[in-house]
Every structure is written in C-alpha cells, then in structure tokens.
Design brief:
Layout lengths: L9 H5 L17 E6 L14 H10 L4 E3 L5 E3 L2 E6 L5 E6 L13 H14 L9 E8 L2 E6 L5 H6 L10 H7 L15 E7 L3 E6 L12 E2 L2 E2 L7 E6 L3 H10 L4 E2 L7 H5 L4 E16 L9 H9 L3 H8 L7 E2 L26 H11 L6 E6 L3 H16 L4 E6 L1 H10 L5 E6 L9 H4 L12 H10 L5 H18 L2 E14 L2 E2 L14 E2 L3
Parallel strand pairs: 1-12, 1-13, 16-17, 16-18
Antiparallel strand pairs: 2-3, 4-5, 5-7, 6-7, 8-9, 9-12, 10-11, 13-19, 14-18, 14-19, 15-19, 20-21
Helix pairs in contact: 3-5, 8-10, 9-11, 14-15
C-alpha cells in the first residue's frame, strides 16, 4: 500500500465497476437468530477486550475507518477515502456521508478523533500504535493522523482485536477512562445492543437507519455491503458441547459454534441441520519457556521437533478425519495468500529418531522431567497434547503432562516458570506484526526468547516498508522460527460448526460467525 497513488482510494479501486447493492441480500426479512456460543463476552465496550468472544459481538455493533475483507486485505469502512503523504508520516481520512449512530446522531470527524484518542489511552490494543503521534479533526468530514515513524498503520487500524470502534464523542466524554455500559453502547453497525445479561445472553436488534455501503456488491470479511436481514440476533453462552449440539437438533438454536467432530456424523444425518467447516480456524502450536534450562538449549529444542510426527498429532486431534486438519508449516494459512510462505520449512514434518538421540546427547540430556501443560476445555488441544507426549516419551524425552482448565493454564504460563512446554492454538493472524508479542525480546508471550537476528527481521516487518519488502522480512522471520524454534508449529486444525437449514445465506469466516445478509426462514 506504500506505493498507492496520492489519492489512495484503495477500496474504491478494488471495487471498480461495483454497482450499488445489486444482489439480493435477504431471502426474507425479519425473524430471530439464536446462536449457541462457547463462551460469553466480558464487556460490551469494544475497545477494552482482545478476547474472541468480545470481538464476535463488537463487529455487529461497531465499525472502524477500515477493516478486512474475505481475502484478508484492508478495505474502507467508515472512511470514504484516505491520502498518505509521500514520507508515510501523515494519513488524511475523509469520512463517508450520512453515517448514523444508533442514537440517531450523524457521525463527524470529532467522533472519530475522540474515539481514537480514548483507544490510545485505555485500550489493551493501544501498544500497536506506539508510533502514532497525534490524531486531529481538520473539518467535520476530515481526520488527520500524524506518525512519529512509518509503520503498517492501515493494517493496525483494521485489526479487530480489539476493534478501533467509533463512538459518539459525547459518550467518550461521559465515560473517559471508564467502561462504557448499558444503553450507551452506541456504534454505527448494522445491529444495535438491545440487552446484555452476562452469562445469559446478548441480544441485538436491527438498526433500521443503517446505511449499507454502496461501494460493495455484498458483504466481505468484516465489512462490505452488510445488510441486517433478521430483526434480532441473540448470542447465548452454552459452554457444554453436547448442549450446543442437542439445541441445534431440537431447533432451540439456529447456530452452534465449535461442535465436536464426533457429533458430525450424527448431524450429517439430520436434514434439518447443515454442518460446515471453518477454514482456516486454528494452528495447533507449542509455546516454549526459554527460561527453562533444557528449552534454553537449541539442540534440545531441535530434538523436540525431530521427535514429532505432525500428521499423527493432527489425526489424533481430529479423530483421523482429513477434512479437519492440514499438514503445513506456514504461520500464515494458505488462504492468506499475501503472507503465506514455505520459508524455512525444510525441517518440518521430518521425524528422525536417530537425529533425536544425537541432539539429546549434544544437549547433555539424561531423562530429566520436562513439564508440558495443557487443558481439556479445548478437546483438540488435549488430544494433541496426549499424542505429543506419547511421541516424545517414545523418543526418550521424559515429558510430564499436567492438566488444568484453560484460564489456569494461561495464568500459569504467563506468571510462573515451572513449565517448559505450553499447548496452545493460534487463530489466523491478519498481519505479521501480530507475531511480535510472541517472538520479540522482552514480550510477555515470548517467554524469555530473544534472538538479535529475529529482532532485525521483526523491525522490518513492523516498519513502513513496501509490502513486497515486508513480505521478504516476514519470510526471514519464519526461516528463523524454523531454525531456532522459539515456538513449534504442528499444523492446521479446522473446526465444525452447525446451522439450521432454515438459516439462509450463512457463510463461515475466520473465528466470527457473521449473521448479516443471513435470512431466518423459519416460520
């Protein structure tokens, strides 16, 4: 995007020839969609949480200046256009006309400026804008951003975790640093918050004054021409997997997130239900505590890798069903064409017992216990952990599997140094700079890892270089990952989700169900 023309109408250029909402967005209007979710959001204030549960709701209620499309490319949302200065240090956004908030007020540049300034002050995502110097209102339709140094500003602005949500300026003034709550949860999205009962339900109703973006032929990614077909969308936390499946079959739920693979044959025999695979969904991945004396030794890390047969691990996690896994080494999924790469993957999926013995001897390892922490909340993680532990033990590595619930595992990984291997999963990253928190010296999730060659490559990834130069730097990062093993990637795991056949137009995407442009045909 660095070499865009002065008037960087990225979205408009992408959509040249698009006619205003020419396709039929809704088969029918009205009705209610009941969605059974694995967990519930901790807040309705979109900028305060990085959790998936909060993101799943925020994208209905709020919008940003830019967002991501189906191909993981940045597209305009509330922005009509933007201009990037030649030195890359200034972005000037022009806003779309006539955008309404849920309280009926028309959005202006002051709302954008106030919302961005609040985000920079209190959001856990503020760190990704450390090189943003200022944001200011130029006129009612124009906002200017000034950067201290060039960096992937548009990608950062579009990341939905947490989303850079635009609130009315009076709501920002009213709450300041505090959490926005209740009837003041006001955005510009196609649905507005009706009611939130923590641990019970989140109820959203159609925003009748929503202006569908005429620059797009239909919805794409988190944006595009979104149309609210159903009058009401309800997210219901249903943590028990069996309850989600049962409710889907009885018709109590129209959608069930993260259903068990073992339930799929049963559901596939039910004509009232449709099962789809969310792809991409998770990367099965191991985080390593580099403060552990064995993990700190590269030959030991290489022995861990050489003892692993990824396909067998993925088969264990997916009950052997090939539709639900993929053996591939890239940190970005093949669907994410801009960043997908095979760089450095020569050692991936190359189990070698002789090499393991040689590497363990080089590390001076003599069967000392290696603590491997995991959980059962995510059944695929647990099954992967069991298979990994078995492979390592067979190779002569004395792995001790310790089981706990997911919140306890996260807390232990971040706060204690009594473990060596942490079983986890990564959702799709939207830009390489999102890996900095796991690969950069001194970051919490790097767990003591520090490599100066990696630092150099990461600094280029998080710079204002042209996309092709950032891609080259990212390939260097991935090459170092496979050579030095700050983490160990096992492969891709895909998750089934189910919908009632009466729900028309639903298309799985990323880790967020999208119910705009989806019709409820149930009578």
């Amino acid at each position: 995007m660095k070499n865009m023309p002065v008037s960087a109408l990225l979205g408009c250029l992408l959509l040249a020839g698009a006619s205003p909402v020419a396709y039929a967005a809704c088969e029918v209007q009205g009705g209610k969609i009941q969605a059974a979710m694995t967990t519930n959001a901790s807040t309705m204030d979109a900028i305060l949480s990085t959790t998936n549960a909060s993101r799943q709701v925020a994208i209905y209620l709020f919008e940003s200046l830019v967002t991501y499309d189906d191909n993981y490319q940045v597209i305009p949302q509330l922005a009509e256009k933007w201009v990037r200065s030649d030195d890359g240090l200034t972005y000037t956004f022009t806003l779309r006309d006539g955008i309404k908030f849920h309280n009926g007020k028309t959005m202006t540049a002051d709302d954008v400026t106030a919302s961005i300034q609040r985000f920079l002050k209190i959001s856990p995502g503020a760190g990704r804008f450390k090189n943003l110097q200022s944001v200011e209102t130029v006129d009612p339709k124009t906002v200017k951003f000034t950067l201290k140094a060039d960096f992937p500003f548009l990608s950062n602005l579009a990341i939905p975790s947490p989303t850079v949500a635009i609130y009315p300026s009076e709501i920002v003034a009213k709450y300041g640093d505090k959490e926005v709550t209740g009837a003041d949860i006001i955005g510009t999205g196609p649905y507005k918050l009706n009611r939130w009962q923590p641990d019970v339900s989140i109820s959203m109703t159609k925003f009748t004054d929503y202006i569908t973006d005429p620059r797009f032929k239909g919805p794409t990614g988190f944006g595009g021409a979104r149309t609210a077909c159903a009058d009401e969308v309800n997210f219901l936390p249903v943590p028990e997997e069996a309850a989600r499946v049962a409710g889907l079959q009885t018709g109590d739920f129209d959608f069930a997130e993260a259903i068990s693979i073992t339930a799929v044959p049963q559901l596939e025999g039910d004509k009232a239900v449709k099962v789809e695979i969310v792809k991409p969904r998770w990367a099965i991945l191991l985080e390593l505590d580099h403060k552990d004396p064995w993990i700190a030794k590269k030959p030991f890390r290489k022995a861990l890798e050489a003892a692993v047969n990824p396909e067998q691990i993925l088969q264990a996690a997916s009950f052997g069903r090939k539709d639900y896994y993929r053996v591939q080494p890239s940190i970005f999924f093949p669907e994410q064409k801009q960043w997908y790469s095979q760089a450095g993957a020569q050692t991936y999926n190359a189990p070698n017992a002789d090499a393991v013995k040689k590497l363990l001897a080089e590390a001076g390892y003599n069967g000392e216990p290696i603590v491997f922490i995991t959980n059962q909340n995510y059944s695929w993680m647990f099954k992967a952990s069991q298979a990994l532990a078995a492979q390592w033990q067979k190779a002569g590595i004395n792995v001790k599997l310790e089981l706990m619930d997911w919140p306890s595992q996260i807390k232990r990984a971040q706060e204690k140094a009594d473990w060596a291997i942490n079983q986890t999963g990564w959702s799709p990253r939207l830009d390489p700079f999102q890996t900095l928190s796991s690969l950069q010296c001194g970051t919490v999730s790097a767990f003591g890892y520090c490599n100066q060659e990696m630092e150099g490559a990461l600094s280029k990834v998080n710079s204002g270089l042209a996309d092709d130069q950032r891609k080259k730097a990212w390939e260097d990062v991935q090459r170092i990952v496979w050579d030095d093993l700050p983490i160990i990637r096992i492969g891709d795991y895909f998750e089934p989700e189910g919908t009632r056949a009466t729900l028309k137009g639903y298309v799985p995407f990323y880790v967020t169900p999208r119910f705009w442009d989806v019709s409820q045909t149930k009578k």
